[in-house]
Write a structure and sequence with these properties.
0% strand, flat, mainly alpha
Length: 177
């Protein structure tokens, strides 16, 4: 009975903290739902000619953004891997017998530390991008990215609805391929 209560409590706590962390981090970057969203893309958006032209990215800024991206991406990869490893350890600890709640709490704390580190790396990328672009162009970037995500979300919903209403005919699919 105690084990069941502890597992339920830990699962509830993990869910609450994960939801809080995801609300802070957003799906692909830093985000809050207010007007002053901090969400910026963590990819090489300045390599797209339209984006570079719209934001008047100079060759020096391109070099700075390239260096920032490489450094940030390496840190993100390490942080994401650490988080996945810690979540695996936590999962395995939950399934272990005999159950050790102290180890479980340590693994949970390690996972939350890794999640915080990941969020911090994303935030640093946003901060340094802001320093390179300045206030006005950074606002343009955020607005452009927000619009792109909204359009992408609408298209994904429409595609999903279309797939739900049209059952696939496997025979037709094979003939078309």
């Amino acid at each position: 009975m105690k084990k069941t209560v502890l597992i339920f409590t830990m699962a509830l706590l993990i869910g609450t903290l994960s939801t809080t962390a995801m609300a802070f981090q957003g799906k692909g970057g830093l985000e809050n739902s207010g007007k002053g969203s901090m969400q910026v893309p963590i990819h090489r958006w300045w390599k797209f000619p339209k984006a570079a032209e719209k934001l008047n990215i100079t060759p020096e800024e391109t070099e700075k953004l390239d260096a920032l991206y490489q450094k940030s991406k390496e840190q993100l990869i390490d942080s994401e891997a650490l988080l996945k490893k810690n979540m695996l350890k936590l999962e395995m600890q939950f399934d272990s017998d005999p159950f050790d709640s102290a180890k479980c709490l340590k693994n949970f704390n390690d996972a939350q530390t890794a999640r915080t580190k990941l969020a911090m790396e994303k935030f640093k990328f946003a901060l340094q991008s802001r320093e390179i672009l300045g206030k006005e162009r950074f606002e343009q970037l955020k607005n452009t990215f927000r619009q792109f995500r909204q359009q992408h979300s609408k298209k994904a919903i429409q595609n999903h609805k279309g797939k739900m209403s049209k059952p696939k005919n496997n025979k037709e699919d094979r003939n078309n391929n």
